[in-house]
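Input record (one chain):
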Amino acid sequence: MSDTTASLTRQLGSAGDLQSVVRAMKALAASKVGEYERSVRALEDYYRTVELGLGLCLREGEAAVPKVAPRGRSEKETLGVIVFGSDQGLVGQFNEVVVDYVIKILATLSGKPKIWAVGERVQARLIDAGLPVRGLFTVPNSVKAITPLVGRIQIESEEHRTQGEYASVYVFHNRPRFGALYEPVCQRLLPLDDQWQKELAGVPWPTGSLPQAVGGRMAILPALIREYLFISLFRACAESLASENASRLAAMERANRNIEELLESLHGTFHRLRQSTIDEELFDVVSGFEALVQQQTSERASPNP
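The corresponding structure, as predicted from the sequence alone:
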């Protein structure tokens, strides 16, 4: 009985230690989710400014954004694809979900994809699916690490695009969703959508007088497009990381509930066993007392020799 009690005590201690670890990971994941979501919200004003600048360049009969097509090729022949994944554990089907979505969307597009993966695990999933992975980037572990990553993606993507390897660029990632953990999404970064350009050109300027662009509107258009691409990639990366930590947070919540149920069961078993041990000890004491009383009664009742 003492061995069983000692074993339950050890199990309770181990479960309690594990619960402490889970709670710490849960708090860290919740903190990270908030950090990445705040970084996305912080981009909104800047993104609005860039949109207003693009709209100003595209209005009043200005030429549309030029589309750079591969030399001697059709725009539909080759697609540049960027896929954001996760290299951390305890994220469930995070990489599988985005890869399945990539396969689904690419099946609807005409052209041969050239894929850059952000994360070794999502790269492995893409290769297993038979998709051509051209390059690999490391998943950032903080908001500060997103900017250098986006810069490297822009440099490599632009280098291959200007060499005429492709004209279209698509980005795939998981996005946080209200009422659920996340959902996979796709955005075409290049070429800029004609309808989107028309909508931008129709956005009213917030003041009564339009600003003047030094050197002409079309002179600053490339810089604004680069900023637009930077913001789009930064947002995609931050949303992917927020989704990753939301998935981990949900996993930790499930683990915490399971540990609480286990602790409740172990405590119940331990208390029943302890009560059973006390009952047995009391029974032994009562039985011994009754035997002693019977012996003394017998001795008094027996005649003296």
